[in-house]
Write a structure and sequence with these properties.
Blueprint (H helix, E strand, L loop, with lengths): L4 E2 L4 E3 L7 E5 L4 H11 L1 H7 L1 E5 L1 H9 L4 E6 L11 E5 L3 H5 L8 E6 L13 E6 L4 H14 L3 E4 L9 H6 L9 E3 L3 H6 L3 E5 L10 E2 L9 E6 L13 E4 L11 H18 L8
Parallel strand pairs: 1-6, 3-6, 5-6, 8-9, 8-13, 9-10, 11-13, 11-14, 12-14
Antiparallel strand pairs: 2-3, 4-7, 5-7
Helix pairs in contact: 1-2, 5-8
């Protein structure tokens, strides 16, 4: 596949077999300044409807999943990805100023944002709700676990971390490109879609004590609701049933991403086994 090349000084001659000249983008170039804004500011990602993806593997995942890729930016010596848009070569040292990791990947791509419609919820039978999740690494892991366990979507309530934050993208290991994400949906809207909202808690002193997650029938149309890392779900959260993961020792609770993984795979286990093997709550 032939790539288009965007040029800016200084000049660099490519090898004869590549057959063309190009210029390297320097740090002051407007395209590079845009990359830095998309990497560092949620407001820029919101305004421009785009985000960055770092690394050849993730860029290839985005292309394979059918996402629109505006262009790719390559450090010296890197090779372009087929289907990832216009090719931009960076001057030495520029990638280190743009990348969001201490050891930069040799390629960054700009990908057009897209979110699933809330209409998906009316037919879904298993979704994961990130209610006020604030840590990008946690959300990325939740996306990865939700996809692996067969969830049909991940839903973000208002105030949750940006799912196109670079750390979310990296920690999702490509799941962000395959699992539908629905943004800015309230727990009330989830209930109106007919899903049973299973609130998760590590506390047992609630008015309605949570039950062991393995005793709840997860073969129904359910939404697993996981709350903010610091505060969890409040007692008056709009949920239908409460579940907990029993544990021993002095640890107060599991990390929210770990809890999401345990619960997602319990849903998967029950659905493989069939409803006759679980106890309805």
């Amino acid at each position: 596949m032939r790539h288009s090349v965007v040029c800016a000084k200084p000049l660099r001659l490519l090898s004869p077999e590549r057959g063309f000249l190009n210029h390297e983008l320097v740090l002051s170039n407007s395209s590079i300044q845009r990359l830095r804004r998309l990497a560092g500011r949620r407001s820029s990602r919101d305004d421009e409807g785009a985000f960055i993806v770092e690394g050849a593997v993730l860029v290839a995942e985005a292309v394979a999943a059918g996402w629109e890729v505006e262009g790719q930016y390559l450090a010296p010596g890197a090779e372009p990805i087929d289907g990832a848009g216009a090719v931009h070569y960076l001057a030495p040292g520029v990638m280190e100023k743009v990348a969001t990791t201490e050891t930069p990947q040799p390629i960054i791509a700009v990908v057009v944002r897209r979110f699933a419609s809330a209409d998906l919820l009316t037919k879904a039978t298993f979704v994961v709700i990130a209610d006020g999740i604030s840590d990008p690494g946690n959300l990325g892991t939740m996306l990865r676990s939700a996809e692996a366990a067969g969830a049909e979507a991940l839903v973000l309530t208002p105030g949750s971390v940006d799912p196109t934050n670079p750390k979310v993208v990296r920690s999702s290991a490509g799941s962000i490109f395959r699992l539908p994400i629905i943004e800015k949906i309230t727990l009330d809207a989830i209930g109106h879609a007919g899903l049973i909202r299973l609130g998760t808690s590590s506390h047992t002193n609630r008015e309605f004590a949570p039950v062991d997650y393995t005793t709840v029938d997860c073969t129904r149309r359910i939404a697993l609701v996981l709350g903010n890392e610091a505060h969890g779900l409040s007692d008056n959260s709009a949920v239908d049933e409460w579940v907990t993961i029993p544990h021993v020792g002095q640890a107060e609770s599991l990390n929210v991403a770990m809890a999401a993984t345990v619960l997602c795979f319990e849903v998967a286990r029950q659905r493989r086994a069939g409803s006759s093997t679980v106890v309805s709550s």
